[in-house]
Design brief:
The chain has a six-stranded mixed beta barrel. Strands 9-10 form a two-stranded antiparallel sheet. It folds into two domains: about 5-50 and about 285-455, no CATH class; about 70-270, no CATH class. It has 16 helices and twelve strands. The longest helix is centred in the N-terminal third of the chain and has 39 residues, at about 25-60. By secondary structure, the chain is an alpha+beta fold. It is elongated, with a radius of gyration of 33 Å.
């Protein structure tokens, strides 16, 4: 029996028919498919939520790289130089300041105001993609214009065209009357990230520079005796921050190396800091990564359960086919060849189940809103029938409509889903190898089968 083609043929016969039409292979395939389906959908939805948060933070707030400590007269030329580095998508200068805003409501609200160039959305495509302008326009050409988050505007009871009082509390004292100014609302944005929609606004970068000026007679050091010398006139303007976006954020270390060489050539190393998104958001991103890993492990336990079931089914199959194994051994089949029959059973079960589960999982993941709409509709039909039945029996039905994710409760319009190919391959391999390893260990009994003992009474 030099040819090994018969091994796959016999294995396929065992899986497709089996003795007494055993349902074990079918249940094993369904178990693997269920595990792959569940893990695919759960990971895709988790990716949708997590990447939505991560991209909102990187595109709106922290950027991929942040360059701080650059003096205003150096910022323009340095921005052009950094933009020429391969892999850099955009360089956007900005200033931030903490303010108190008061609209039509009596109580003020604290907010973070970011000053950006008037053409910021053209300079930074990532920012333009994440900011959905619900009302008005992102118009910062007029220094007296301001763009507010949707939840912040709702809290202040203002709309486009209304005015808000802005009191800057950055760089000076709260009773500094020059910092209490009136701005007209040019637009209202929504980012999908509640913190930004409730606590952020945008103004022209020149306006932010004026609001954040530090008066020369204020202290600029933590030491009580250190004050600005009397010969310094006017206000001290804090340096802007350069927010750098990359075409691929995973190339941040390589591009940081190129930028550090440029800073060294311009002798800008002292007091200048270049920070990657990995460091700037380490705690938050680390928590998300741990959460995803634990979810992957917990849901992946289903493969252990399915693998144990396949192991028991394959051991039973080995015992049930002792006569057939003895016959194969008697006509010249080796231990390894006979064992490979059952290993091929595991390969067929694992590949079929993992493929079926992956196809169904990807279908659900790509149509997750429709899937949950169907689920909600089915549950609401059942609730409606139950309410009708209770009312007909003279009761008082009070069950309302069911919603998996209600926009009134959760700050989302629909359930997000994001498929990462590398993770889908990993899930497929988990399902496949759980069946393969179970079959391999279960087939170990084959080597103990003696043809003479099995066929003695046949």
């Amino acid at each position: 029996m030099k040819s090994k083609r018969w091994i796959g043929f016999v294995a396929a016969r065992y899986v497709s028919r089996g003795r007494g039409a055993s349902p074990s292979p079918v249940f094993s395939v369904l178990g693997i498919a269920t595990g792959v389906l569940a893990l695919t959908v759960i990971i895709a939805v988790m990716n949708g939520f997590q990447l939505g948060f991560i991209e909102s933070i990187l595109e709106i707030s922290s950027c991929h790289l942040r360059l701080e400590g650059i003096q205003p007269d150096e910022a323009a030329g340095l921005s052009e130089k950094l933009s020429s580095i391969p892999g850099v998508l955009s360089v956007l200068p900005f200033r931030e300041l903490n303010v108190l805003l008061r609209g039509n409501m009596a109580s003020p609200r604290g907010a973070l105001i970011r000053g950006v160039p008037a053409n910021a959305l053209e300079m930074d495509p990532g920012l333009a993609e994440k900011l959905e302008i619900e009302e008005g326009f992102f118009d910062l050409d007029d220094p007296a214009n301001i763009v507010l988050g949707a939840e912040l505007a709702r809290f202040l009871s203002v709309r486009v065209g209304d005015e808000v009082n802005l009191l800057s509390i950055t760089g000076g004292f709260a009773d500094d009357t020059d910092r209490n100014q009136v701005y007209s609302i040019a637009g209202i944005f929504r980012s999908g990230f509640y913190e930004y929609d409730l606590g952020w606004g945008f103004v022209n970068i020149e306006t932010a520079a004026e609001l954040s000026n530090i008066p020369a007679d204020l202290k600029v050091s933590e030491e009580p005796s250190a004050e600005v010398p009397e010969n310094i006139k006017g206000d001290v303007q804090p340096p802007p921050v350069l927010g750098i976006k990359l075409k691929n954020r995973w190339q941040d270390r390589q591009i940081m190396y190129e930028m550090e060489k440029i800073l060294a050539e311009r002798l800008l190393g002292e007091g200048v800091t270049l920070t990657s998104w990995r460091e700037y958001n380490r705690a938050f991103f680390g928590a998300l990564r741990t959460e995803k890993l634990m979810m992957f492990i917990l849901v992946g336990l289903i493969f252990i359960v399915v693998g144990l079931n396949i192991f028991q089914a394959q051991r039973r199959a080995v015992l049930e086919r002792r006569e057939e194994i003895g016959l194969l051994r008697a006509i010249g089949a080796s231990d390894t060849a006979v064992r490979l029959i059952f290993v091929w059973d595991g390969i067929i079960i694992g590949f079929t189940g993992a493929s079926l589960g992956l196809v169904l999982g990807l279908f659900v993941a790509f149509h997750i809103p429709a899937f949950f709409s169907f689920l909600e509709g089915a549950v609401n039909v059942f609730i409606s029938l139950a309410n009708t039945l209770v009312n007909d029996l003279g009761g008082n039905a009070g069950a309302g409509e069911f919603a998996v994710f209600s926009p009134q409760i959760f700050y989302i319009k629909e359930i997000p889903s994001r498929v990462i190919p590398q993770e889908m391959v990993l899930i497929f391999l988990f399902g496949f190898f759980s069946a393969l390893l179970a079959a391999w260990f279960a087939s170990g009994k084959v080597s103990g089968t003696k043809p003479a003992e099995v066929l003695r009474y046949e």
